[in-house]
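Weekly modeling sync, notes
Attendees: S.R. (lead), two postdocs, one rotation student

Agenda item 3: backlog of single-chain predictions. S.R. asked that every request posted to the team notebook include the full sequence so nobody has to chase files. The rotation student volunteered to paste the first one in as an example of the format we agreed on. Action items at the bottom.

Example entry:
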Amino acid sequence: MPHGSQNEEEGVVKDKKIVDWILECVNDNLLFLKLDREQRERVVQRMRLVKVQSGNNIITQGDVNATTFYVCESGSFDILVDKVKVGQYKRGGCFGELALLYDSPRAATIVATSDSEVWEVSRNAFRYEVASTYKQKNLENVEFLKKVELFSWVTFCFYIQFLFTYI
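Predicted structure, as returned to the notebook:
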């Protein structure tokens, strides 16, 4: 969790220009590759803008409680591996995606080199939005199958079992 003050609460509806910019930033990111547009937008809407003061670590190498993904809105961040600078993130840079996918230690330290702002989303918010859209799509599929005459013999219990099997 970055050290700084929170600008925006999680889930506050964002301006279309901001949403489109964040979507462009995450377009080729591993975390978002398999998500459709609706899922991506729902995750972006859960992001919140956070200030990070120069010199503060937003990510610390080896941290095992990693649960946040970031998109750099402004400022810059150095990428340090074993205290050696190996790169830098600037506006539009994305980092922390492995924390949302896997429960593994952080691979690098990310330190703010200027007063900065990042959009962040937690693992729980990310997973909730992805699961919610899958659940909704499954419900829609079941409703469609109920209307297909070929499947009219299938009971309501089967629909429920089907739904919970694929959530």
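Discussion: group reviewed the output briefly. Residues 1-7 have pLDDT under 50 and may be disordered.
Action items: rotation student to repeat for the remaining queue; S.R. to check formatting next week.
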